[in-house]
Design brief:
The protein has 800 residues and is an alpha+beta fold. Among the domains are: 2-60 and 142-326, Beta-galactosidase, Chain A, domain 5, CATH 2.70.98; 433-600, Alpha/alpha barrel (Glycosyltransferase); 736-799, no CATH class. A hairpin with a 3-residue loop joins β2 and β3. α3 (82-90) runs antiparallel to α4 (94-104) and α9 packs across α21 (701-714).
Length: 800
């Protein structure tokens, strides 16, 4: 019996691990990520010299320091050209309208160096391009801060190699042996203490020698070693940003620690611990974005850890992390013990070939939660296109915040996966965009309110971008949805009053000014562009649907706050006049006001289905004909695409309650990819051996959008309704999920077998009424705060 329990415990541990039997070669495809929200590191597990790229969220080129004339992309007075553009559009002169828009209404950026490889291609990773050129001068890029290098002087044949990432405890480990010497490593990222911690151990009698040093692509102003701490003071050549990386070296049994030629040599030791933190002079305050005393920040962090043992640092990290991670248990049936014990890359390969492996799918869900916790915490900046993991100085798409779906998708699972605290990073960041966004709205449109467009940096670049793909002022309205969603899930009225509603109102004020009447008296966005697809237009449907969503949320917010009646009436009137979704000649949901969709078009964006997900304008219950048209559009676009595109389709099909189609797309999302076997954005996304999503190249949105879709298949909700197992595929015939959140501030746990509900347990964190639906059954509940109720498959009360 004892053995049986031990075996079960071991299997449970393996179910929440990524495991490999060889070092990683490719950064984005094979290295294992750790992060504490502020900082990130990718670990390859090299035996001789471990090179660990370290990111800190504020290390960005661009901004006010790069160009004296930096103006957040704005063009004062550009609005004077808005009416001429509209006049040309009304006259049907789209070519002329686009040229004038391009000349006068696109934002300011200096183009980077020309390259034979377009930015959209899956190019080889170039960590530091020639002359440190970046693609978007005047906008900038997120950049690697430093590399931490650790040389291990123990040579010989490596055996018993095992590299893993334990997402239950948020720790990466490595074990191997060289001859009779066993080596082990442990790496983790502490949010409470703001340090990355790297342990190296060996059991050689006399110990071995380690060499530790920093390397950086930035300018080094000073490198020093004092009282066991390695200091590296740096400055970005691009914009003058200053930062300091520090590494506290702990090796108590070492005979000698010396600093020579910018390296720390530790001889004859059995245990080495390196604690790394980093801070810059960036401060998220418009318009300077500068002012943090970064050396003081580092001194305070060092002072705090000096009072702790290494094991206390790890214990505090583990408690903090598990407080978030352990809220949700997610198990989709049972895989064979052989699969559970298989290295993750081999397991992905078998899964990609059709293997049934519900345990692997469960691991993928929890890995997504791990990534969100690791890249986004309450006081950090939000997760960017690559979370917090970037090894390049000129990464794809600047590794920025794309607001035409990508940063939003990063946070789709935040509330339902019970990680509201991680969501807070985005919500606070959105609030910080209001001031620069107001200037952009004024300069380009002479409008009230605020905007942000497709590409956004950490220096307040809210302007229209420098191409048709980047003309997307609806970004602010879409981001505002996240503040409303946070309220729906938490029922936090002070948050709604003090933070969410002012942001939402500001976004709505812009649209009250920007919308114009068309020839039918309907309000339309003009000019508008369907994101990254199609040319200039009147009333691109994504704009229309996002504005409907924003206005509807304003109306719902006033049902709670009752403090803005005059504005409410304006919103109600404008919403009643909005051009709404239209059904085209093929039975499809139109992407534009005009019926010009191509049924053979497989474009990655399915923007006009925003109203289905994450919006709520289209639903099976309330708008069945529009839902049918949305289905037709999805069928035309197909089940492939880039990683995030496939993830979005999982959510679409889940909303349509087509379980098998949602699952088909989900399996496509987990299709095995390697760096060398696919290229640009026209090819298919999938999943790399380290379970990062292939955009291509790597983007974290596919991971996070994918797990949002998994949750959507099991639980859908609005303020008054919980729908149980609405899109349960036959492949998930048995399962149990604990701790998902639902709108209305409920926690929901589900058990099912043979594709039928066994029990549901609902905890009300706020007193309220709710309808619970399972297929054609419904029960109305009136729950008090703290009340827990359990129902069976017939929705009969079992206990409360």
């Amino acid at each position: 019996m004892v053995l049986s329990c031990q075996e079960k415990t071991q299997i449970d541990i393996q179910q929440l691990q990524l495991r490999y039997e060889q070092p990683a070669e490719y950064w984005y495809q094979e290295a294992l990520p750790i992060g504490n929200g502020y900082m990130g590191a990718l670990i390859r597990g090299k035996v001789d010299i471990e090179r660990i790229p370290i990111n800190e969220e504020t290390i960005w080129a661009g901004g006010p320091g790069e160009l004296e004339e930096y103006n957040f992309g704005n063009k004062p007075g550009a609005y004077k050209h808005l009416e001429p553009v509209r006049k040309l559009l009304k006259e049907g002169k789209k070519k002329e309208a686009y040229q004038l828009t391009k000349d006068e209404l696109f934002g300011v950026v200096q183009k980077g160096p020309k390259t034979d490889i377009p930015v959209s291609a899956n190019r080889p990773v170039t960590r530091n391009p020639k002359h440190q050129d970046i693609s978007f001068k005047g906008f900038g890029t997120y950049q690697t801060a430093v590399d931490l290098l650790v040389q291990v002087e123990d040579f010989g044949e490596v055996e018993n190699y095992n590299r893993s990432l334990d997402i239950k405890n948020s720790v990466s480990t490595l074990d191997y042996s060289v001859g009779n010497t066993s080596h082990s490593r442990r790496s983790f990222a502490s949010y409470p203490d703001h340090f990355l911690v790297f342990d190296f151990e060996n059991n050689k009698k006399e110990g071995i020698t380690y060499n530790v040093w920093f390397e950086t692509f930035h300018q080094v102003k000073n490198a020093s070693f004092k009282d066991g701490v390695y200091y590296l003071d740096c400055q970005l050549k691009n914009n003058g940003m200053e930062f300091q990386a520090v590494a506290k070296i702990v090796a108590e049994d070492s005979e000698n620690i010396r600093f020579h030629q910018k390296r720390v040599e530790i001889t004859n030791t059995n245990k080495l611990t390196i604690l790394v933190t980093l801070s810059s002079d960036y401060k998220n305050e418009y318009p300077t974005y500068k002012g943090t005393d970064f050396r003081k920040v580092n001194r305070e962090r060092l002072s705090r850890i000096d009072k702790k043992s290494l094991e206390q640092i790890y214990k505090d990290h583990k408690i903090d992390y598990q407080n978030l991670f352990d809220r949700v248990s997610f198990k989709l049936g049972k895989s064979s013990s052989k699969l559970d014990q298989m290295p993750t890359d081999k397991r992905l390969e078998k899964y990609s070939k059709g293997e049934t492996d519900p345990g692997f799918e469960s691991l993928y869900f929890q890995y997504g939660r791990y990534l969100l916790i690791s890249s986004s915490r309450e006081n950090s900046l939000p997760a960017n296109l690559q979370g917090k993991w970037n090894v390049e100085m000129n990464p794809q798409w600047a590794c920025d915040y794309h607001t035409d779906i990508n940063v939003q998708m990063n946070y789709w699972p935040a509330e339902v996966a019970n990680l509201s605290e991680s969501h807070q990073a985005l919500l606070n960041y959105v609030s910080s965009l209001q001031k620069p966004g107001e200037q952009s709205a004024n300069d380009f449109y002479n409008a009230n309110g605020w905007i942000v467009n497709t590409m956004n940096n950490i220096f307040g670049y809210t302007a229209n971008n420098w191409g048709s793909w980047g003309y997307f002022p609806a970004g602010a309205a879409w981001l505002s949805q996240h503040l409303w969603e946070h309220y729906l899930f938490t029922q936090d009225i002070p948050f709604l009053h003090e933070q969410a509603y002012p942001v939402m109102k500001g976004a709505a004020e812009f649209w009250l000014d920007y919308l114009v009447e068309d020839e039918n008296g309907e309000l339309v966005s003009m000019p508008s562009f369907s994101p990254e697809h199609g040319g200039i237009s009147i009333g691109a449907m994504m704009d229309q649907e996002i504005v409907w969503d924003l206005f509807t949320n304003i109306i719902s917010a006033q049902d709670v706050l009752h403090n803005d009646e005059e504005f409410l009436q304006k919103i109600k009137l404008s919403r009643s006049k909005l051009l709404g979704p239209k059904i085209g000649q093929y039975g499809q949901l139109q992407e534009w006001k005009e019926d010009r969709d191509d049924p053979n078009n497989k474009h990655r964006h399915v923007s006009h289905l925003f109203a289905l997900y994450p919006g709520k304008q289209i639903s099976l219950k309330d708008t069945p004909e529009l839902a049918k048209a949305a289905r037709k559009s999805l069928e035309f676009r197909g089940d492939g695409g880039t990683g995030w595109s496939i993830a979005w389709k999982v959510n679409f099909w889940a909303r349509l309650q087509d379980a098998n189609h949602a699952y088909l797309c989900f399996r496509n999302l987990l299709k095995e990819c390697h760096y060398h076997n696919h290229g640009g954005m026209t090819l298919q996304g999938g999943t790399y051996p380290n379970l990062f999503c292939a955009h291509p190249p790597f983007q974290i949105d596919g991971n996070l959008g994918g797990i949002a879709g998994m949750a959507e298949m099991l639980l859908q909700s609005d303020m008054n309704t919980l729908q149980l197992l609405p899109a349960l595929p036959k492949e998930w015939s048995t399962g149990k999920v604990k701790g998902l959140k639902a709108r209305g501030n409920f926690e929901v746990s589900l058990r099912w077998s043979n594709n039928e509900l066994d029990t549901v347990t609902i905890k009300a964190n706020t007193s309220r009424k709710v309808d619970v639906i399972y297929y054609d059954q419904l029960i109305s509940l009136d729950l008090m705060k703290g009340e827990i109720i359990q129902l069976n498959k017939d929705l009969k009360v079992l206990s409360n």
